[in-house]
Amino acid sequence: MNSNKPITQHSPDPEKIRSMFSKVAAKYDKANSVLSVGIHHLWRKKVIGLSKAQPGMKVLDCATGTGDLAIAFKKAVGPTGTVIGTDFCVEMMETAPTKAKADNLEIKFEFADVTKLQYADKSFDITSISFGIRNVYDPVVALQEMARVTKSGGKVMVLEFGKMDMPIVSPVYNYYAENILPKLGGIVSGQKEAYEYLQKSSAAFPSKENFLDLMRKTGQFSDMSFTPVSFGIAYIYIGTVK
User: Fold this and answer.
1) Superfamily (CATH) of domain 14-163+206-241
2) Residue 216, Cα to own-chain centre: how many angstroms?
3) Is the separation of the CB atoms in 229 and 142 below 8 Å?
4) Going by C-beta distance under 8 Å and a sequence separation of 6 or more, which residues neighbour residue 147?
């Protein structure tokens, strides 16, 4: 597929994204905890459960950032399992090895672009990406690559912000996301522009069935589904590789 013609209209510039995340890296964990009131940890736990990760499995976590999802997967697959965390922004991964070692976990962290993964076909039982797919220039190419390196019958797991549908809750959350989140994120991280982008990109990115349409375009999945978390603030997408 020609990656110069992204499927979605929302097509962020890779170098701008890399630069933005390198600036927020040092305070990324703190900002996440403040802005989500720590609930993002519960979302990741849900991802692990739905993935059916078992001891001995091999997992690739793309756009791993500071390594939270990779660490959660390593706890699930245990000493006999393997987890590799990758990111195309090296600065985001600087604290990840220290966090893993603090839990006595052996995880390899490597530079990788999710649209051009350097791993062999059918190398992993599970491939995941958490809050990173909307920052990719062409998410369909990224999904194709994630499926390519995943074994037949294996799972591609995507955790991403979505659009809430609750009549009473949605207006309140939308006001928070549009007016408070960018300012609060800017105060905590010192990078207000980054959190304005994160809010706008979340609002513009396909969710629910529209995201499943992106997965279908890859032609790589035999089954696809999504599960909302926290009333649809985010969604977990599961693709079973053909």
Assistant:
1) Vaccinia Virus protein VP39 (3.40.50.150)
2) 19
3) no
4) 127, 156, 218, 220, 221, 239, 241, 242
The pLDDT, as a whole number, for residue 110 is 98
Q: Whole-angstrom Cα distance, residue 201 to residue 195?
A: 10
Rounded Cα gap, residues 60 and 64, in angstroms: 9
- Per-residue pLDDT tens for 199-215? 777 778 999 999 999 99
Q: Which two tokens stand for residue 100?
A: 């893993």
Burial bucket for residue 5 (CB in 10 Å: 0-12, 13-18, 19+):
exposed
Q: Tokens representing 1?
A: 């597929």
Q: Considering only CA atoms, which of 160, 174, 173 is closest in space to residue 238?
A: 160
d(CA 148, CA 133): 16
Return the amino acid letter for 211: F
The 10s digit of each residue's pLDDT in 81-136 is 999 999 999 999 999 999 999 999 999 999 999 999 999 999 999 999 999 999 99
In the block, tokens 């007016």 appear at 179
Question: How do the domains of the chain map onto residue ranges?
Answer: 14-163+206-241
Q: What is the largest CA-CA distance in the chain?
A: 47
pTM of the model: 0.86
